[in-house]
Amino acid sequence: MKQADYAKTLEWLKTNPSLDELCARFPEEWARVQQDISAIVERGVAEELKAYLERLSARTPQQNRDAALSQFVRSRMAHESVKKLCLSTLAADTGVKKGKLRFNWLNGFIAQRLLFARGLERKPVSLSWFRLLWPLVWQKKRLMPLVQPKGIYCFYSRELIEALAGMIESRNCLEIGAGDGTLTRFLKDSGVELTATDNHGWSQAVQYPEWVAKLDAREALAAYAPEVVICSWPPAQNDFERHVFDTPSVQLYIVIGSRHQFAFGNWKDYLRQSVFDLEEDKRLGALVLPPELEPAVYVFRRKLPASR
Question: InterPro entries in the record, alphabetically (predicted)?
Fold first, then answer.
């Protein structure tokens, strides 16, 4: 590939193209990924899939430019394919064999009143009401397949928002990968001063409010020099979280995700960095809804400088 074409391809990849767009532009890479994933799924060993994703994401020493680009594209394809595979598995698990997936009237009524203010606009969920009414919803497995295509990966309880506000306090806070800005909106309503940013790369699924600044994570971190950074469901094997660990002003980084590490975040960067202590906060994880997601909250705290 010529240098000019290579540079244009890199710029295009920074726009977060969809899986369909990647497949159309790189049909040979897609054929390899399809073959690999099909073989793994046929064998039915989940650990093989995790190892395959990790292998594609690993940096190969002494790899030439075109080979590195091909591997990066296949890694992006594989992670997006697994995400779609999980979503289709969830949908199949609902028991709906044909026709449009939807709630019946009662299940839809309860879910709407519990989780949404209007339409698909989320609201801070009352944990006490959730614990009372959620057991009455017998079509629970339909919820996430219905809302994930719109960029909704979880729901936030009031208690979670209060706990996060207590952790952030009056410090300068930045949300990266903010999507539709729901988490920032809830925290602002609780008195937290923070800025929501996103590269607006998922406009085909997410409606971005004007107040969600169109900045990628690197630009946002440089512009705002935050003390606290928060991110909800960062994409698996993303290339932007590493900039959080390289930003000197950051003292606290809070990640909302899953107990399943392959489903979100860049765990290689999480474990490679050495300036933050990492812990899973199970108390906070229990406040992310619904519990069927097996949500988790991970907290990175900057290590104190070694005393002389």
Answer: SAM-dependent_MTases_sf
